[in-house]
Amino acid sequence: MLKNYFKIAIAVLRRRKFFTVISLFGISFTLTILMVLTAFINKVVGDDYPDKKRDRSLYITRLEEDGPTNMSSAGPSFYFLNHYAAGLKIPVKIAISSNFNGTNTYVNNKKIAVNYKYTNADYWDVLEYDFTEGKAFSKQQVENAEKVAVISTDMKNAYFGDESSVVGRYIEADNVKYRVCGVVKNVPITSYMTYSDIYLPYTVSKMDYNYKGYRGGYMGILLANSKSDLSKMHDEYEQMIQKIPMESKEFNRMYSHADTYITSYVDTGNEKQSGVLIVLTVIGVFAFILMLLPTLNLVNINITRIMERSSEIGVRKAFGASSKILVYQFIVENLILTLLGGLIGTILSIAIIKFINSENLIPNLELSLNLTVLFIGLIICLVFGFLSGVYPAWRMSKLNVVTALKA
Amino acid sequence: MLKHLFKLIWNKKKQNLLLISEMLISFLVIFAVFTLLIYDYQNYRKPMGIDYENVWVVNYNNSFNTDNTDSLNLFYETMVRTIKSLPQIKEISFSSDNTAFSQNTNTGGITIKNKRVDNINWYTVDDNYQKVLNMQMLEGRWFNKGDAVARDIHIVINSVLKEKIFGKNNAVGEFIEDRDNKTRSQVIGVVNAVKMKGDFAKTEPGLYSRTDTGSFRWLGKILVKVNPGTNAAFESQLYKMLANYMKNSNVEIEHMDNKLKSANYWYLVPMIVLLIVAGFLIVNVALGLFGVLWYNINKRRGEIGLRRAIGASGKSVSVQLVGESMILATLSLIVGSFFAVQFPLLNVFDLPASVYLAAIFLSVLFIYLLVFVCSLYPGKQAAAIYPAVALHEE
Fold first, then answer.
1. Do residues A25 and A68 both lie within one domain?
2. How many independent structural domains does chain A possess?
3. Cβ-Cβ contacts under 8 Å, A19 against chain B
4. What is the per-residue pLDDT for B109?
5. Which of B250, B275, B304 is the last residue of a domain?
6. SS (H, E, C) chain B
7. Claim to verify: residue A288 and residue A144 sit in the same structural domain
8. What pLDDT does A93 receive?
9. Considering only CA atoms, which of B46, B32, B37 is closest in space to residue B198?
10. What residues contact B327, with CB distance under 8 A and at least 6 apart?
11. Residues B238, B297 within the same domain
């Protein structure tokens, strides 16, 4: 039966080529835009370099202190993480690192903007960077405040040029000479929690890391033993926050959360509204408006096409076809059309993604069309096809046999 | 003629309803796009308010540990003298973190004549700030050394704040109360407002207060005006000098024109994405309209043939068909305008009404043009129908 429907659908599409082209154009472009958007979100959310142990990690990025007349919010300080968070029982390791900051270095009369980040030794155990050369600095080196640095591949190319090995060489940043002990694969800036050009031990930081205030420019990653410990670890952190004494008299409440990657990533600092909810709403509204016009367009075109086939429908009804069968047939035909459009859309998305990757619009951000994206694209296709086919199919089934035959 | 057209449309109201709703949603989409474009364009046309070319921003943090305010001031004053002695330096000034084109914002409120005004950008700057950025004074004067020993605290406000509080009256010499309602400040000058967030940002109310002896404890930014053509070699020299002088500080030098480029991305990227998406949607709608109209006309061959046989000219036939489409467009635009006009009436997003009204006007024009172009070819097709052939088909 489906084979017959398929044949009829192709015949109908070839009969009115102009309408087919319009429909395919609308579907394929809508799908391309949605799929590129999905690929983007998938990359930002799903890319697990370098935090490959993401499913058993919680991220602490913000500490907010509220008082009766004011509120201050920033990342937690090194002292806060080292003293309080490191004292928790469930986490096996805690990675502490600063937010990345900018400085300059001048090499060969050229200025290079450098982003640097201070980390502790456990940072390199919690996260799994790919070292193309050398290795990370050790606990001993951190304790000795040795001036060593791990640099990114881009930094190595910008500073040293075409050298094959730079471990042991010296790189000057922020007017200090550091010895390179390792080179890692690049992290795109969209992974802002782990991105940097240079990674340094926190002990060489020019700012006092023993500063006992709770807020500073650091963030922490708590690593649990297994995925099942995650919610317990979250609760343990929340309870600890409640018990910590206030820093000063001007504050009476403190908020801080150890959340999963996505929740931390979109954290806007709003305690009342979930950041994830806001992001989902915005994306949802955008996708809805994007799909609304092409759907309406398709509905219009489909109704037009049905009216054209009214005599064919009238004949079939006269021969005893029930409305249900006709509706079913039409929806299948519509789905075939949208799937065809989806195929074209997929090819277009591949082309556009290749283009975006080659133009390097966001450095090191490599979009890819993986199974998740394709699957979501397929779902969108089907939803599309169904939505734009339902109303015309219903209209068609209501056609009066006699009037249809007379026309 | 119009009454007749309306009747024809009413007869096929179900099918026309879909067309009308499609046009309506296109209108709303175009309205949104035009609003954004006009708003950004209006902002772009306003003057920047500062000369940002050849201005560098030095980020540092105060690492000179001392309780003695005098030695702190001496430390930085010596640094300023050393910097100014360098050949390429024209002028330097200290500033709070909310410099132009940065992501930092510092806002507060003031009270004046028992009325509270909030969301004012608060800048703490020194006497040379106006010279470094070449800001234009509209009334009164900028800060000078004499303000340090004045009886009241002296402040400078910008044109946006001045209009908000004083309207067209003179502002120099007036008093305002600080955010905590304790200290009184006197306005000594009005400066032209600056588009602090980029070319496409709007000017916001701003208040400038003068640095005092204790400010060096927390200040972290220096604006440096250099001669045009200063290269990276000199910048490296300046950088080394600063880093060596302030030994425990992280130093970074940024160029203000690069900061402007980054700040503009926040406006340009959404605009470009919106344009691409809207462009695709409109092409889609145009093709759809075209197809549907063309099909409709094909269905009415008999009716058109009859009209031609009775004596209607080809031109009147196409006029009738195009007229029908324009009436459909008008119906949808009436509903659309009703929704769109709510925006300026309710002052949504605090955009000036002129932006919305201009956007409505342009969107209406655009939709009319779109419908006209889409119905032109089918109309011409209809006019080319031979009455004998058309009637024969019946």
1. no
2. 2
3. 291, 295
4. 79
5. B250
6. CHHHHHHHHHHCHHHHHHHHHHHHHHHHHHHHHHHHHHHHHHHHHCCCCCCCCCEEEEECCCCCCCCCHHHHHHHHHHHHHHHHHCCCEEEEEEECCCCCCCCCCCEEEEEECCEEEEEEEEEEECCCHHHHHCCCEEEECCCCHHHHHCCCEEEEEEHHHHHHHHCCCCCCCCEEECCCCCCEEEEEEEECCCCCCCCCCCCCCEEEEECCCCHHHCCCEEEEEECCCCCHHHHHHHHHHHHHHCCCCCCEEEEHHHHHHHHHHHHHHHHHHHHHHHHHHHHHHHHHHHHHHHHHHHHCHHHHHHHHHHCCCHHHHHHHHHHHHHHHHHHHHHHHHHHHCHHHHHCHHHCCHHHHHHHHHHHHHHHHHHHHHHHHHHHHHHHCCCHHHHHHHC
7. no
8. 92
9. B46
10. B2, B5, B6, B9
11. no
Distance from C-alpha of A237 to C-alpha of A244, rounded to nearest angstrom? 11
Local structure of A365: helix, strand or coil? coil
Residues of chain B contacting A27 with CB distance shorter than 8 Å: none
Probe site for chain B from A174, A189, A202, A297 (most B CB atoms < 10 A): A297
Nearest to B133 by CA among B314, B257, B262: B257
Tell me, yes or no, whether A299 and A353 share the same domain: yes
pTM for this predicted structure:
0.80
Sequence-ordered list of residues with C-beta below 8 angstroms from that of B377, at least 6 positions apart, any chain: B290, B294
Contact residues on chain A for B235, CB-CB shorter than 8 A: 104, 106, 111
CA A24 to chain centre: 29
A401 pLDDT exceeds 80?
Answer: no
Q: Which of A147-156, A225-234, A299-308 has the lowest mean pLDDT?
A: A299-308
Q: Which of B231, B252, B299, B367 to mutate to test the interface with A (most CBs of A within 10 A)?
A: B252
Is the Cβ pair B22, A293 closer than 8 Å? Answer: yes
Residue B393: per-residue pLDDT: 67
Q: Does A288 touch chain B (CB under 8 A)?
A: no
Q: How far is B252 from chain A (nearest CA, A)?
A: 4
Integer CA distances (angstroms), A28 to A180, A278, A346, A348, A384, in order: 49, 28, 8, 8, 11
A348's CB contacts (< 8 A; 6+ apart) are A28, A29, A32
Whether A301 sits inside 8 A of B299 (CB atoms) is no
CA distance A363 to A115: 14
Give the integer Cα–Cα distance in Å for A337 and A383: 13
Is A102 in contact with A189 (CB distance < 8 Å)? no
- ipTM (interface predicted TM): 0.74
CA angle B326, B327, B332 (to 5 degrees): 95
Structural domain span for residue A219: 63-256
HSE of B20 in the Cβ direction (CA atoms, 13 Å)? 18
pLDDT tens for B47-83 read 998 999 999 999 988 888 888 888 899 999 999 999 9
* Six-digit token string for B312: 């209607």
Burial code (b: 16+ CB inside 10 Å, e: under 16) for A324-333 equals eebbebbbbb
Contact (CB, 8 A) for A258 and A59 = yes
Full residue range of the structural domain in which residue B163 is found: 61-250
The single residue listed with the structure tokens 């005893």 is A320
